[in-house]
Amino acid sequence: MAGSWGPDQTVAATVYNPQTYTSGYPEIELRLHTSISAHSITGYEICMSVNPNNHYLQIVRWNGSLANFTYLSTSGPGGYVVTGDVLKATMIGNVIKVYINDVQVMQATDNTYLTGSPGIGFDYGCNGGYSQFGFSSFTATDGTSDTTPPTAPSGLSVQ
Questions:
Q1: Cα–Cα distance, 29 to 20 (Å, whole number)
Q2: What is the CA radius of gyration of the chain?
Q3: Strands (E), 38-131
Q4: Is 49 exposed, middle or buried (0-12, 13-18, 19+ CB in 10 A)?
Q5: String of DSSP letters for 108-124
Q6: What are the tens digits of pLDDT across the range 126-148?
Q7: Residue ranges of domains in the chain
Q8: Which CATH architecture has domain 9-141?
Q9: For the whole prediction, is pTM greater than 0.90?
Q10: What is the pLDDT of residues 3-50, one digit of tens each?
């Protein structure tokens, strides 16, 4: 997301997943303290499967170049999310906490990136398409008192 973001961030998204996948690694992703530039991405990613046959939930730190990431936690409950589930992540100071339907399920601590933007991502990891799963709603806050509404993203379409 564009703009300036404070260091304490919360992101939450309601999942849309009609459970059409039976192979591969399609996943939804929440992002914290993220910075993206040409050929580089840094920050934190909470990724969770939407495939009932490949369960995982992970917190990773992206270190810059393509496929350069570090697992910070893979000890969560695993599983996958379905339509209506709410995936939430917070980063307060250097502590990342992950929640599913308001129940904390994972935590990690890391001091590498203390600034950056929140956001979302997707990886279909199979022969499917992004239009088959995603989020029906998304919020991001940083604990500041800024009440300026965000600018609507461009170039997106609903199918």
A1: 18
A2: 15
A3: 40-49, 57-64, 69-73, 86-92, 95-100, 103-109, 117-123
A4: buried
A5: EE--S----EEEEEEE-
A6: 555 656 777 889 999 997 655 56
A7: 9-141
A8: Sandwich (2.60)
A9: no
A10: 889 999 999 999 888 776 666 677 889 999 999 999 999 999 999 888
